[in-house]
């Protein structure tokens, strides 16, 4: 497990597979893709990247699965754990790197 500190979510834990994906050139390119487009020209502190967004989305997907595991019935809990990795990886926005808002 790898731990990344995020200013919004605090500590985000990544599995070894997720760490390998984050280490790829395609994912690292997301550092340069702005989530909020050209908004930083008007709001200088609006420098949020697709990289940060993807890590936060991955973290929130895990929190949703945890909530299902705590509050759901046994069938929901079983399915949530079965698809945990798939859901977390689906939130890693590599496909948007080529269709970025502002590259």
Taken in chain order, the helices and strands follow as EEHHHHHH
- Radius of gyration using CA atoms only: 15 Å
The main sheet comes to:
2 strands, antiparallel
CATH architectural name: Orthogonal Bundle
Low-confidence stretches: 97-103
Helix content: 40-55%
- How many strands? 2
Distance between the termini: 30 Å
Whole-number tally of structural domains: 1
CATH superfamily: Hypothetical protein af1432
Count of alpha and pi helical runs: 6
* Global morphology: elongated
Mean pLDDT: 79
Strand content bin = 5-15%
What is the name of the CATH class? Answer: Mainly Alpha
Question: Can you list the strand order of the major beta sheet?
Answer: 1-2
Secondary-structure-based class equals mainly alpha
CATH topology category name: Hypothetical protein af1432
What is the strand and helix layout of this fold?
Elements lengths: L1 E5 L3 E5 L1 H7 L2 H4 L21 H22 L2 H9 L1 H7 L4 H4 L5
């Amino acid at each position: 497990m790898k731990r990344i500190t995020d200013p919004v979510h605090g500590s985000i834990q990544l599995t070894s597979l997720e760490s390998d994906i984050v280490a790829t050139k395609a994912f690292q390119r997301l550092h340069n893709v702005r989530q909020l487009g050209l908004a930083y020209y008007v709001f200088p502190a609006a420098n949020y990247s697709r990289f940060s967004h993807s890590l936060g989305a991955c973290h929130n997907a895990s929190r949703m699965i945890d909530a299902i595991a705590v509050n759901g019935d046994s069938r929901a809990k079983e399915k949530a754990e079965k698809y945990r990795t798939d859901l977390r990886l689906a939130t890693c926005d590599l496909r948007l790197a080529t269709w970025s808002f502002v590259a």
